[in-house]
Design a protein that fits this description.
Blueprint lengths: L1 E5 L5 H15 L5 H14 L4 E7 L2 E9 L2 E7 L8 H13 L3 E5 L3 H9 L2 E7 L10 E6 L1
Helix pairs in contact: 1-2
Pfam families: Acetyltransf_7
GO molecular function: acyltransferase activity, transferring groups other than amino-acyl groups
InterPro entries: Acyl_CoA_acyltransferase, GNAT_dom
């Protein structure tokens, strides 16, 4: 059974560990320098989102962060990717938190296709990310 829990600063190390494992599996396009940059930056942004931890049978499977109606981050431990946890979490967030916007790395085709499959549509694209890095961002909306 999927259980959510509000994250606190005490959970940041576990969150960063999941982010690192997940990003290594899904963000092959990042240079080593940029991977290290994001690893340093992410903890600085955790306080600015509604951060939830997601568990199944006592196992921490991932985390999500939202701001208003935007899903800012959704990362799963790679051991749990492909087992419908992402879909279940996304549906819960849409139904209970009103999520209708997502930004996704355009080069992360699996994530982009995941959100498109769940009814999101491309609204625009940027050639660089919010940090000025050369990673295109696709802005998605749910209509």
């Amino acid at each position: 059974m999927l259980i959510k829990q509000e994250a606190t600063e005490n959970n940041y190390e576990a969150i960063l560990n999941i982010w690192e494992k997940s990003a290594k599996e899904t963000h092959h396009f990042l240079s080593k320098e940029d991977f290290d940059f994001y690893k340093e930056v992410i903890p600085q942004h955790l306080d600015s989102v509604d951060l939830l931890l997601w568990y199944d049978e006592g196992n921490l499977i991932g985390f999500s962060g939202i701001s208003d109606t935007e899903l800012v981050m959704l990362f799963l431990d790679p051991d749990f990717i492909g087992k419908r946890y992402g879909s279940r979490i996304l549906h819960w967030l849409m139904e209970n938190k009103g999520i209708n916007q997502i930004d996704v790395n355009s080069q992360n085709e699996n994530a982009k296709n995941f959100y498109l499959k769940h009814g999101f549509e491309v609204s625009s694209e940027d050639e660089i990310d919010g940090f000025g890095k050369p990673y295109p961002i696709t802005h998605l909306v749910k209509k």
